[in-house]
Amino acid sequence: MPVNVLFSARAALWPVYEPLLTRYLTEAGLDFSLDTEFAPGEVDYVVYAPNGGLRDFTPYTRLKAVLSLWAGVESIADNETLTVPLARMVDHGLTQGMTEWVVGHVLRYHLGMDAHIHGLNGEWRQDVPPLASERRVTVLGLGALGEASVRALAALNFNVTGWSRSPKGIAGVTCLHGADGLVRALSNADIVVLLLPDTSATENTLDAETLALLPKGARIINPGRGPLINDDALLTALNAGQIGHATLDVFRTEPLPADHPYWTHPNVTVTPHIASETRPVTAAQVICENIRRGEAGEPFLHLVDRDLGY
Ligand code: NAP
Prior knowledge:
Largest sheet: 7 strands, parallel
Distance between the termini: 33 Å
CATH architecture of the largest domain: 3-Layer(aba) Sandwich
Strand order of the largest sheet: 8-7-6-9-10-11-12
Order of helices and strands: EHEEEEHHEHEEHEHEHEHEH
Oligomer: single chain
CATH topology of the largest domain: Rossmann fold
Bound molecules: NADP nicotinamide-adenine-dinucleotide phosphate
Number of strands: 12
Shape: elongated
Number of helices: 9
Number of domains: 2
Structural class: alpha/beta
CATH class of the largest domain: Alpha Beta
């Protein structure tokens, strides 16, 4: 009997993924059927994104795993109708894109590029930036994306601190964890990058209390998820100069509503959730490797801990 793989994601992605998944499933030597529609009781694997619309997994009685095309799984991790393994996306292309975006925005702040992009108004003001080794960058979250980002920043000689739930050791990076670790990580940060998942434990990681721990004028870069930041607290901190500038890629409501104060705040840069995305060529290989593993009885890669929510 063929392995039935349901593609449940944005319709526009089907022509992109169909040939890639076909190629890699064939290379894996699998007898398979791949489509955007099956009778639910005949599906073995779902290639999944929230915008495919699938919410109720109850009728999927033969399902072996759900394979997310997205790294962030907050919209499915607590789905009680899903009782089989859920794998999230860890994709080399996605990671590379995020690393480039994070390094670019850190360098913007570090080098003070805005002054020259907006113009010095004829004033020959020679503010030479310090070296990266004198700039303290803290990355909250040391998973697939956070670890790649801290490694890239450390390779540029930034003074890098990382923070995660469990202890870590990464060469050239001060790794902290737990509540005390967060206090240290923020107290010593000129620039903070958020690469945490959106879970009940990470909501409002930056609020009035934690924003106050940062050195005055610190900069914030959030490519993680909107709920990581308490927006009112951030706006208050920006207006008071406690936070010098924020670059925000993700928001509690997306698209960011037209009347949201972030759009017009002089010290906020809004980017429309473009920090990175899953890259089909590399992601299709990850999906197919997991289907191969499932059929070979091997452990799946990148499983979500449903209790932790990531
Ligand atoms: P990941 O591999 O699951 O890593 C998550 C990291 O956060 C881990 O280091 C984890 O600690 C840490 N963490 C989780 N809960 C924590 C807590 N309560 N306290 C302290 N640390 C905690 O995730 P990833 O692949 O790096 O992705 C991170 C997030 O980026 C995704 O969840 C998604 O929301 C976002 N994202 C955004 C875009 C975009 O375009 N803007 C694109 C892709 C992803 P441990 O290591 O100890 O488990």
